[in-house]
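seq as requested:
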Amino acid sequence: MQERQAGPHLNIAESQLARVTDFGDDLLAAPNFEAADYESETISLDSVMKPICSTLASKDSEWTARTEAMASVRAMLTNTAAGDDSASRLAASMLPLIAPLQVQLTELRSAIIKDACTTIEAMSAALGSQFEPFAEALLVSLCGLNRVTKQVMRASGDAAVRAIIKSAELRSLTVLIDMGCANRCCSRPRNSLAYCCRSMSDKNELVQQRCAEYCTLAVESWSRDFLELLREQLAGMISALLAGSGAEGTRTAARKLFVAFWRHWPSEGSALFALLDRR
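struct tokens:
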């Protein structure tokens, strides 16, 4: 048996290749897509991704085909060799998935939403810091699932965001800071990754609460050196949320974020507290 190569080249038996290309009923279902299947022909991951992206690019495709397509993505992630170089090349090959996944996150069928979120979790775990462009594009949609009424959708989106934060230290956390700040004034430089503006804000109280919780998770989990890049944005978020007239859940989450922030920067935390106390 020919050994599987690292990076975005997978050894897939000819019969498996036909199923990827045709997107038939037996599409590379994750439970059956094992390392033993990589035997003869070497194809680029790019060519495998093309039909997958085509299927996921619309909500008009048969929903079962879309779930199978996302299962195949998870299987590829599982069976691709680990390593920084491999993750970089894999991330480059998977960039075309961003827009199709955004489409699937607007689906009304909870099974599709759950599959999309599970796939995004798997991608973040496999790609690590290389997941940055995906996070920047997908976090708004994932966090926005907190607005929907179906609990399974909210839970899936919530779990995916938390998994992304745990997978790596990402500058795209500023997307969540923006959503959490809503339309409140959040002073920070316009050249930050996601400058806080009205188009990026969200007035939904649960979204604001969750954003504060996500930022707290990041502050508690990530290194102080990396968080230093986000210190000013985080301080602005805390000030905006605690000074506002938000719901109790949002204010409670903001207070927990303040405590996590203060543990890293006691002097700035004390100054922020004094400023809020005077308001």
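The beta strands are 9-12, 41-44.
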